[in-house]
Amino acid sequence: MKLTQAAAATFGLDDEAWKRHANPWSVWTRMAGLAPILLPIYFREALGWWSLAPIAAGVIWMWLNPHAFRPVHEPRSWASKGIYGEKLYAADHSPAAAAHRQMIRRLLAMAAVGLGIMAYGLVRVEPWPSLFGLTLIIVSQLWQIDRFVAIYEEGLRRAAAAGS
């Protein structure tokens, strides 16, 4: 099972959940949801055991988020198109996705490097590696969404061409 399919299964993304996750509020609040998880890890010495409460809340929010918003049936925003494109990519049978697979793999590698740097910064309680790693992760996520938008739009063009 591909990583994208495994992630979709972990978050229970059936067709309805994908439509809910395509809501721009879902996309942006999920991206912002990293802060409530990472800040208490960074400040764990000052917060002590109390740091576990916001971390747990953040993890629960990340799991609930794709199901929490009104579904988008016709994507118009960049974020919505990105999630619809991600669904095509995860399906693994979209010809539109084939041209983007290598770049998306590179972006996932970039996020993995960012995760390693961020983890180092969090363990050592050093701000610059923590922020630099987080920045790499966020840039990777935004760039992936952009690739997924291209997949979605190419899929629409292919469907229109096949229908004419």
- Helix coverage percent: over 70%
Number of strands: 0
Largest sheet features: none
Q: What series of H and E elements makes up the topology?
A: HHHHHHHHHH
Q: What general form does the structure show?
A: globular
β-sheet strand percentage:
under 5%
Total of DSSP H or I helical runs spanning 4+ residues:
10
Intertermini distance: 35 Å
The count of domains is 1
- Unreliable stretches covering 5 or more consecutive residues: none
On the 0 to 100 scale, the average pLDDT is 90
Radius of gyration: 17 Å
Which structural class matches the secondary elements? mainly alpha
Commentary on this structure:
With 164 residues, the chain is mainly alpha-helical. The chain has one domain (3-163). The chain contains ten helices and no strands. The chain has helices spanning 3-10, 15-21, 24-32, 35-42, 44-47, 52-64, 78-91, 95-98, 101-124, 127-163. Helix 4 runs antiparallel to helix 6 (52-64), helix 7 packs across helix 10 (127-163) and helix 9 (101-124) runs antiparallel to helix 10 (127-163). The model has no long low-confidence stretch (mean pLDDT 90).
Structure characteristics:
single chain, 164 residues, mainly alpha, globular
What's this entry about, in short?
With 164 residues, the protein is mostly helical. The protein is 78% helix and 0% strand. The radius of gyration is 17 Å and the shape is globular.
Topology (SSEs and partners):
Blueprint: H1 3-10, H2 15-21, H3 24-32, H4 35-42, H5 44-47, H6 52-64, H7 78-91, H8 95-98, H9 101-124, H10 127-163
